[in-house]
Amino acid sequence: MLLHCCRAAGGVALSNAAARDSVQVMTRSAMAFLFVGLLTGFSAGLFGIGGALIGTPLLRIIGQLPPLLALATPLPVAIPSAVSGALAYWRRGLVDRVLAGRTLRIAVPMTILGSALTHWTPGTVLMVITALVLVYVAVSMIRRESATGGGDVPASSVRVTIAAGIAGFAAGFLAIGGGIVLVPVYVRWLGVPMHRALATSLVCVAAMAIPGTLVHAMLGHIAWDAAGLVALTAIPASWLGARLALRLSGRTLELSYGILLAAFGLWFLVRSLATQ
């Protein structure tokens, strides 16, 4: 009987220790996802990139999610966080509604197509492509001279159509929201001032994330518990980022955007290649 009691007590102690370890792991995971939300939300508001751009690498590295889950989990978070950031610009009258409408007309169906194609693409390949896109856009933004354009862009512009198609496909295939493509294209191809480009991009990011989220959810690519934790901090952080962006010059934003993406993209590229 005594031996039985000792064994039972030992089992309870081990069970309690395991429970404590489990709670600690869950707490660390929750804190990691909340931290990812802060970074992705703030960058969404500050740089107009929707947050998914750095959300995927961060969820892969900090959150330890598998590639496809890391790819698509930031998408549902992009909707409220992008809307939160866009509202700050909307109140200042910086959103180009004509340009946003023309963009979304092409981008939404391309987002659906891109999302569906991830079903046949290896997750590691998607991680490497994401890193390469980061580096390319970063370099192009750093080297670019200050934007001189202004005013609204005609809705019939061929360049808008091309940009919308590329952004929409990238938003679905790489689950990056589309802002990483739209901001440089609006500024470089169309001559849209930086703040207006950021504002319009955030509106498009929120809209494109809806069909992208639906398709990726059907494919089982979204970790909803992680997405919920990320959203808790991403939404207020996005609003703060947008408020800060309004106080900075357009060129300062471009350089900050480019330097951040270059450093982060190179690091993530090396890490993705090393884990193949």
Essential attributes:
mainly alpha, 0% strand
Fold blueprint:
Layout: H1 2-47, H2 52-61, H3 67-72, H4 74-90, H5 97-117, H6 123-143, H7 158-173, H8 179-188, H9 194-218, H10 224-245, H11 250-274
What does this structure look like?
This protein is mostly helical and 276 residues long. It has one domain. It is 79% helix and 0% strand. It contains eleven helices and no strands. The chain has helices at 2-47, 52-61, 67-72, 74-90, 97-117, 123-143, 158-173, 179-188, 194-218, 224-245, 250-274. Helix 1 runs parallel beside helix 10 (224-245), helix 5 packs parallel to helix 7 (158-173) and helix 6 runs antiparallel to helix 11. The protein is globular and about 40 Å long. The relative contact order is 0.20.
